[in-house]
Predict the 3D structure of the following.
Amino acid sequence: MRVPARVKLLTILALPVLALPLLSGAGAGAGQSLRYADVSMPETLAGAQDTPSPPSAATLPPDQADRAYPFYMPMDGLRRPAVRLLVKCDASRAAGREVYAGRSVDDFGGRIEGGYELVYEALDGTGQPCIYPFAPLMPQVAGDLRGTQYILRSSIPGRRVTFRTGNEWASVGLHLYDIGQQRLHFEMRDVELDFPGAIQPIGAVYLEAFDGHRPGLFTAVIRRSKIYGGKNAIFVPSGQTMLYVEDSEIAGNVGTNSDQEHGTYINGTLVSHFVRSSWQGQRAWQNLASGHQIKDKAYLRIYENVTVSNRPVGSTPSAMPLVDVSAFGFTWSNGLRLNRIAPAQTPREGLVDLRTELRYGAPENYPWSLLVDPAWRMPPTKAAVVGQALDKVYLSIFLNTTVQSFRTEPYAIALRPQGTHLAPDGVAMEGNSQTTLAQQRMVSMAFNTRGTLAQVYAPQGWTLVDPALPPQARWVTDRDAFIRHALGLIGR
């Protein structure tokens, strides 16, 4: 099976994102009445064929890669930033703050309308990479937001600039409110943030866009960057947000609330798409299980050639699963590498946890109920599920996953059960342990998983290992078809 192209060039991004037509097949059949805790489902459908290989390394030079975006990310409707500011290296280092070549942020009273582009000199006067001894100054946003872009980048594509400071408030933040149906965009390219003392900001990179409604959209792209610091190295709260991270290293966080802070925390957004990037360094504590390297509650998650490790920076390793994602919505992964070293506590079972305890994001971001629905019954066998139901369920696909651990992991991936009702807070799910297998509307499939593990999945849920896919189901291993299906279900 041919692997689709990683990205489409910007010039073709005006094409609409279309929903994949529903696949043919019978409707849901009568379900089983087994209690969830009693179901192990050890059988698999043997003989997976033609699974795509992990994506290859980047081939485009940086200046060309910077003009390429995922096909589903509509870049039309954006306007050129109204203001472009150039920051000089040597003068800024001597002053301990930005020194501009020409206009400065102060010329605008610290507030810029129409978007901005902040360009930092990549090299000092001797030709060495520039290290700025402060966090970049992000001007306040003002005026009409429609089509605005906010760009932070190095002056030389492919050559990082470094911001290094022990300031406890160091952060790169963009805060957008009442975006409604507006289209906005943020980009950070060739930037290293080294903020070892930044224990105060909720994110070393903190991107928020509140009160958005379809077709309103905030997109954020991070390329060839390294991020260390903050309560979470990257924090993106709930919103109509798509985050794309490429060729980057998320090196850890430095927060002091170790069990509630993570390498990356994405809370109820539309899309998280990570390509050729790595995560490690979640700040753990010796007597706590601590947090996750990736806590990702986007509706759609795409991981391509991603490495995740609990290797710490200045602390003990976290004992929690490396990747904590929502079972609601869709996950497509190819070439995920999971590396676990021994923590100080007994490790929590599993490396990828597909969880169902909480509801994240706006209801409009989901095509079906997150609770069990009396009108839904899963087909009674795995073969029937694969043949009839994959276009009608929340779905996660894991291709070519490798596990390297200090021990033989009992399993790599867990798919948790749906609940029966919401708690009074309207967020927590309850009754998860009381629902039956037939009531579940979630399926997870793994192909070509290898490494130090006893089995791929925890013994619960509709999970399949290396199933043979009939023709009408082979779209699930095609990244672009999978994305079109997931986003098409919610009108994106």
About this structure: The radius of gyration is 23 Å. The first helix runs from residue 62 to 65. The chain has four helices and 34 strands. Confidence is low (pLDDT under 50) at residues 1-49.
